[in-house]
Structure formats: structure tokens, C-alpha cells
């Protein structure tokens, strides 16, 4: 197993389902070496509470583990964790998992990083301004811009804007933003997914893509001109299309990704098609990072009802992306 790619998997918020789903990694028999970053004692206690017979050992890069063993890079909790109950004192612990994974991808120790869910609110409650994994990793790595893309159910959907109130979206979208997001999407589809000359379909912002200006002018004034400039540069990009009709098999045939204008325009369709098996991907980073498509699910933690499907897909996707990325780097 020493020749296998090594992926870092952060176990996320300790009170949530992150530790639960990480315990399922050995049984997934993935073609890589998954190293779970987290508190070893917490993982052992959660396994015992769930009745899961999982052998857990300390990660040693110089020594190959036995098959079916969960390797853990032990990072201790700041305070004991009660399942399902958030603790501000452990916010620093959650961030330390990300810091160690980032350090590992920077040095080449890890080929990619996969993140289990964390709780943004409790980190902010601890006095640390924090808006999410994506922004935190972008700042650490110095990435100028990152793009959120979810994949699953045969779809890839990227977003021009992410976590904005609806009332702020139209003002946030300008031609430069559409062009930069589309460029990152096309570049990463090529470099991290091996898609040559990716075919990208773009939604409009307004109902019926503005209906010729009767339902808004963003398509005419902003989106269409931006797409025309991208096509002139050689990008294979088309639209804007009405979002309510774009997500149909005959429209998506041959498409490599959809670029949606805002969060709840593109993601409900994708999550309907793939929830529990989808993966959240951060494009624009100088390394590969994927995540699950769900939150901490505090009420499910320790219950045995948490589904590890999305984590397994996230690891598998990260592995594929890392292999493509290594070939072009």
C-alpha cells in the first residue's frame, strides 16, 4: 500500500457526523490511502458507541498499514466532546485539522484533501471570523478567486455567486465576474478532470432568461456580452438559457458542466439528483479539495443513521482529480 496516493480526510466538527462517516472509510476499499485527521480517542469512542468494529491505528508515512485499518493522524480535542453538542472551545481544534491538511498538500505529503462537515456558526461564536472551508483555504493558499462546483447524479454545476441573499445577487453579477468564474471552471475541468475543450452551458439570471428584456436586462447587458467575449477567446461556452428548462437530458447532452448564476438556482436540481452521493468541489485552488454535500447533522451524530456515501464519493473524486492534476503539473 506504500505506493498508493495518500489523501488527507479532515473529520470536521467533532460533535457532528464527521467522525461517524470517517469510520466507514476502511470498508469502502478505495484505491488510495485515506488518512483521517482528528482525535483518535474520539474516533475510538464513536466507533464503540456505534457498535462498529473498526481497527484504528496511528498514521505512519513510512509504514504501510494492513488493509481494512483506519489510519488516524492524531490531533487532540481542546475539550472533551459530547456527541451532538457544539462546544466553542473546540473551534480551534476544527481549524487545526484544516491547517494540518493544508500543510500536507503543500509539502506533497498528501495528494489531495477531503473535508467532512464543520459548523461555521460555532467557529464564529468562538470569536474567529469564518465563512467556510472554501474561503479559509483560499486565503491560506493565496488563491485570487475560487469557484464552488457540486457534482453528482451525472451533473456538474458551478456557481457565479454563492452565499448571498437574493436581494444582492443581481448587483453582484457583472461581466468580469462571469468571465473569471467561467475561466476557472474551464481550466479546472481540463487540468483536474481531463476534459479537453469542455462544453459549458450557462443559465440566465431572470425567469425565461429575461424574455428579451421584459423580465430583466442582466442577460442582454451583462451575461450575453461576457459569453461572447469568452467564445472569441476560444472557450466552448453557450447561453444564457432559462434555468427552468436547461436541466433536461436533451439540453444537457454533451455538456460537461452548467454554470448557474446563484446558489439556489443550480444546486436544488443537482441535490435532488444526487443527495447523499454528491460532492462539493473547490475550483481555483492550487491543490485538490473536495467535500461532502451535507452539513454536520448534529441530530444524527452517534445514531448510526449517518450516510457515508457522499464522503466516499468525495474521496474517489479527489483521487481522480489529483491523478489528472499530477499529470499536467
Automatic annotation (TrEMBL):
GO molecular-function terms, A-Z: 4-hydroxythreonine-4-phosphate dehydrogenase activity
What is the name of this protein? 4-hydroxythreonine-4-phosphate dehydrogenase
Task: Identify its protein family.
Answer: Belongs to the PdxA family.
Sorted UniProt keywords: Cobalt, Cytoplasm, Magnesium, Metal-binding, NAD, NADP, Oxidoreductase, Pyridoxine biosynthesis, Zinc
UniProt cross-references to NCBIfam families, sorted A to Z: pdxA (TIGR00557)
- Highest taxon above the source species: Bacteria
- Its job: Catalyzes the NAD(P)-dependent oxidation of 4-(phosphooxy)-L-threonine (HTP) into 2-amino-3-oxo-4-(phosphooxy)butyric acid which spontaneously decarboxylates to form 3-amino-2-oxopropyl phosphate (AHAP).
Other noteworthy facts? The active site is located at the dimer interface.
Q: How does it assemble?
A: Homodimer.
Q: Where in the cell is it found?
A: Cytoplasm
| Top enzyme class | oxidoreductase
Q: Which organism is it from?
A: Uruburuella testudinis
Q: Which residues bind a divalent metal cation?
A: 163, 208, 263
Positions binding substrate in this chain are 133-134, 271, 280, 289
The record's section on InterPro entries has:
PdxA, PdxA_fam
